[in-house]
């Protein structure tokens, strides 16, 4: 994610992702009220957000969670109880935690800490975490599936930058990696979470079927439009075609069926809820500029690390031209990207 | 502290502070071996560094601490035991934690987290901390003593930017604030530390007597040389004299006697060691440039917040001229600044 608070920053270009917290609010409140089931002798609650970026979309979620826990554990008979909240903001080690800290809302009711590192591995002490949250982050893979960049493999993803439905082997390689990564994420949280603790996951996803003639998803937008811009630039000689062949984006948006199958394999959590929602944030990207800024904030570092920073402005100018010429992508109602809201509960040990 | 890794950064100008970890090493090792006395059923050790800045001087200390704990708890009879270390790096919320995270040594044997906020208050969960460390940080006050900036007070510090021995009321106001702050620091750690946990404090200090004709301390350098540069600039009309009158630096270097008296008042810790050491880092500041760069890395933000950033280059050029003309300050052997090494143990509850 782009750092800081400038024109291309994640902070100023993450409205697409931010709407999901409103969708999740009543569910988080209800699940905490009815199912959070932990030993509260110490009056201490540890909450973690896995994939917090610079915090802009994280802070409202943390507020909802702490208020719901306060409501439950500070009942009218028990108003004197002071709950202590410790919130661990996690993202990769190069994340802009300075911006996160200086953006913390005033008068927060929790102690904040940053925990850098990949959320597929262990980050927190054993049996220390009461509530885990992750929004619009689990699509990130820990690594690219090797086969897609391997010229000798039948899953070689020549001329494309992300999986597309018409290349089944590429799709399968991405799905395998996604399954492995979700497995590692849950294994790590299994050790870190206390019995009876809750986990809320908001995972961007795609429906089993959508019509590419009249509809799209975020991943299709990236494969089809952004990918073809890179191919065009290679043809113009900006860089070699092999450079495009070796570039693949490290994220995967599952279908609901795929995600459910993966989650069901884990033995340490029960699936309390699994709900599919439309993404309300899509209506914030109705202009060419807004849609380009959203994609740039998320992908800029990956693109410039591979192609160099000198190509980025041209790439997104070209992208905007193509977007303008593709009216299907400019109507937010055609965006069939969905969000899966999952609530997991750590089984009693 | 100046952020980043540039020419004026703390990273590149903190050799003066860095020598103390070598002084502390054998003492930390011995104290952990003989006195760390905690329930290790969980095999989890939490360590915190209060006032870590960008980590440059913190990482070697953490390595010493984790190695000593490993040596003690992974005895020959018990080599299979895997210890988990969680290290909490603390500094103020505007500290450059991004640089700290990206500077972490490779292959560290601990999980790192950043905990922003003033160390005079609570930062960590109750009974969670096994080892506390703080080097060259406790001299920072939580606030300026009010009287020194109050025109109506007999402790008004007109025309000076730090206490000097010849203004007893100003000194007393600074000492009062220092005592209050150390008290708050220890109260917070009392709640956070487990019984039998250890705390190592390296506190910059000044001897009870030194001769200003032939010797100096860091605080005297700042009061006498840097302060007089600001007075000269006010006389030249760069800013008003009132601007200098209202500027006071928020740190205090105690004498050993003062620090011991303050620590002895606390009922929750026993003083296991209290040792006075020369500061080996002073020999790294033998040139005008090195000494100016050291003072600038520490004081730049405070100066520019008050006077504006446009005066900073002129100020340090003037400082270097004065330093050049004051040979006493250029011989590191004349630097009588000392370091007090304190080991405290949390009493059994």
Automatic annotation (TrEMBL), chains A, B:
It comes from Handroanthus impetiginosus. GO terms for molecular function: loganate O-methyltransferase activity; metal ion binding. The keyword Translocase does not apply. Pfam families: Methyltransf_7. The keyword NAD does not apply. Gene3D superfamilies: Methyltransferase, alpha-helical capping domain, Vaccinia Virus protein VP39. This is Loganate O-methyltransferase. One of its GO terms (biological process) is methylation.
């Amino acid at each position: 994610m782009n750092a800081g608070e400038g024109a291309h920053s994640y902070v100023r270009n993450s409205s697409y992702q931010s709407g999901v917290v409103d969708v999740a609010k009543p569910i988080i409140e209800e699940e905490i009220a009815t199912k959070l089931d932990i030993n509260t002798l110490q009056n201490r609650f540890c909450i973690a957000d896995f994939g917090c970026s610079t915090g802009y979309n994280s802070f409202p979620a943390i507020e909802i969670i702490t208020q719901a826990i306060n409501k439950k554990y500070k009942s009218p008979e028990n108003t004197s109880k002071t709950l202590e909240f410790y919130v661990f903001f996690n993202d990769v080690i190069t994340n802009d935690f300075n911006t996160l800290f200086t953006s913390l809302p005033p008068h927060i009711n929790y102690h904040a800490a940053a925990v850098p590192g990949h959320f597929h591995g262990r980050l927190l002490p054993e049996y220390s975490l009461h509530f885990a949250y992750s929004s619009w982050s689990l699509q990130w893979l820990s690594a690219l599936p090797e086969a897609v960049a391997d010229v000798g493999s039948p899953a070689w993803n020549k001329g494309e930058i992300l999986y597309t439905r018409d290349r089944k082997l590429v799709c399968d390689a991405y799905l395998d990696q996604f399954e492995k990564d979700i497995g590692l994420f849950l294994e790590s949280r299994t050790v870190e979470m206390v019995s009876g603790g809750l986990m809320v996951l908001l995972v961007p996803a795609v429906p089993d079927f959508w019509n590419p003639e009249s509809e799209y998803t975020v991943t299709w937008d990236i494969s089809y439009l952004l990918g073809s811009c890179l191919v065009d630039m290679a043809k113009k000689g900006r860089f070699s075609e092999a450079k495009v062949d070796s570039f693949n984006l490290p994220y995967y948006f599952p279908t609901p069926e795929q995600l459910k199958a993966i989650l069901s394999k884990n033995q340490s959590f029960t699936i309390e809820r699994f709900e599919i929602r439309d993404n309300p944030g899509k209506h914030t990207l109705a202009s060419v500029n807004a849609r380009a800024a959203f994609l740039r904030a998320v992908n800029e570092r990956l693109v410039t690390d591979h192609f160099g920073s000198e190509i980025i402005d041209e790439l997104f100018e070209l992208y905007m031209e193509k977007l303008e010429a593709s009216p299907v992508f400019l109507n937010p109602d055609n965006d069939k990207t969905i969000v899966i809201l999952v609530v997991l509960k750590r089984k009693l040990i």
